[in-house]
């Protein structure tokens, strides 16, 4: 892991820091940007700053985190004696820094203004780390696969305990508990939507109870070493409306047809449109209301995106979701989602521990 972190730092240094008067600053102010700080340092806490100079790196942490930082990061750790941004500015003064590269997308207005007040030139370099993070290395891929294994096992164990009259929130709590007992972190605020509520693409778990012969859509995930998986499956207690299993078979066809197009240099829009084409053959495309997929890693939504309106070109090392859905107001909906790694020769389904079936309990 440390060797990968050092490679990432060297990449930033080579592309941006061609003199000793420049620095790349990453600031995480109480979990505002922990992902990029973690990616470039190995430190995973709620507060800290990383200063990447042309020839060395400093990790600034408060007293809560200095020991943790020394254990987790290969960089020199400095303990801040004042506010975080004040400590950063002090180091800039000490190193006679004239030019700051920062992340406008992840830096609050108040911090940006305070950096400006230091009378140094500031440039936005948000895209530099975004580009690095997009291509997943072997370690990151292993983490996503492990997260998928944990989430899949937890889901199957949860199904063994599902019963009529259980609330959606109870199901959510049980699945999160199973994920935790298997060593994973809770992935995100999962979607649990049963019956007509399944027509809500982002229907969060409610107090509604799950009834016999109605289906449930569960969009869930786990984290392993900070990395997400993202999976959606559908199940019912008893035999559901026959349209549910029929529509699921169409979603499976759309899912597999679009996933078959995943490869290096493929068009994200064309992959999306393939799923739409399959749904349109059954007059169901009007009920598919979102993009087909998105990248994921340390965050649940990252570049690239598989949408009609965004023609991202896929590259080797991307990890993306495929998640076609059908949502019919007043009846319900379903979605089928898995995660894929883009390879030179095609793709690899990373969440292959679960069958792509409609689960009948």
Question: What does the model show?
Answer:
The strands form six sheets. A six-stranded mixed sheet has the order 4-3-2-1-5-6, with helices on both faces. The chain has a four-stranded mixed sheet with strand order 8-9-12-20, sandwiched between helices. It is 35% helix and 24% strand. Helix 7 crosses helix 8 (168-181) and helix 9 (242-259) packs antiparallel against helix 10. By secondary structure, it is an alpha+beta fold. The model has no long low-confidence stretch (mean pLDDT 96). It is elongated, with a radius of gyration of 23 Å. The longest helix is centred in the middle third of the chain and has 22 residues, at 138-159. Strand 2 (47-52) and strand 3 form a beta hairpin. It contains ten helices and 20 strands.
What are the defining features of this structure?
single chain, 361 residues, alpha+beta, six-stranded mixed beta sheet, 35% helix
Give the number of helices.
Answer: 10
Overall mean pLDDT stands at: 96
Helix and strand content put the structural class at alpha+beta
Largest sheet: 6 strands, mixed
Percent of residues in beta strands?
15-25%
Topology:
Blueprint: H1 2-16, E1 22-29, H2 34-41, E2 47-52, E3 57-61, H3 66-72, E4 76-79, H4 84-94, E5 99-102, H5 109-116, E6 121-124, H6 126-134, H7 138-159, H8 168-181, E7 185-186, E8 191-194, E9 215-220, E10 222-224, E11 227-228, E12 231-236, H9 242-259, H10 268-280, E13 293-295, E14 302-306, E15 319-322, E16 325-328, E17 332-335, E18 338-342, E19 347-349, E20 358-360
Parallel strand pairs: 1-5, 3-4, 5-6, 12-20
Antiparallel strand pairs: 1-2, 2-3, 7-10, 8-9, 9-12, 10-11, 13-14, 15-18, 16-17, 18-19
Helix pairs in contact: 7-8, 9-10
